[in-house]
């Protein structure tokens, strides 16, 4: 299926895995470039990068989940939020294995193996480094903002000159909170509230699972949803093997439509 490349701004590219539909973002400066996420490093990904950014390349993960980081082995050094460093543990692997263990009673082993090839983080020989506070690309500086929630080390990337904010999975219309069971929705709302004053100049959100940007005001609507949903409103979704049931909590907003939160009921507080 390969990698699709879209130009989304001056010297700014979205690279989308055609099979998995997850985006990586390439920000090019005069001297170097920053790649945000590596996806699965699928067919055509490396060659597209060489054409777009032949100069020095920084590589960073918005968070350490397989659909954002399993192409890391193509590179020598990866920057990641300190709480997501591989040596801190990889809780998403434990979650994927628990779900697989439940379904292996009902699904052919070959299919389970194939699913796990996409669902497990598989670090290789690449070196991991704690996230830099900023990346100077030559005539272009990208700031990083810690946003613990979807994972403890989730990171946002702000290009204030262009107005673009790259958020990974930290804010979207189908937010997964259950990937960090210690997270509470009210606690995450406070994290996002604390970030709002630091988003001066940001106009658009680019998320990992949509090719269309969201207005910066989406964050406030998202915060309101986190604070407004009630435990009893959750509707179980078809994910088994997680212990507590994963539920979806929804709110309709006039400006942005439905906002959904996937969480355990115990997190809704």
From TrEMBL:
Question: Pfam families in the record, alphabetically?
Answer: Lactamase_B
Q: Which domain of life is it from?
A: Bacteria
Tell me the leader sequence span.
none
Return the InterPro entries for the record: Metallo-B-lactamas (IPR001279), NDM-1-like (IPR050855), RibonucZ/Hydroxyglut_hydro (IPR036866)
Q: Which residues form the Metallo-beta-lactamase domain?
A: 21-209
Q: What is this protein called?
A: MBL fold metallo-hydrolase
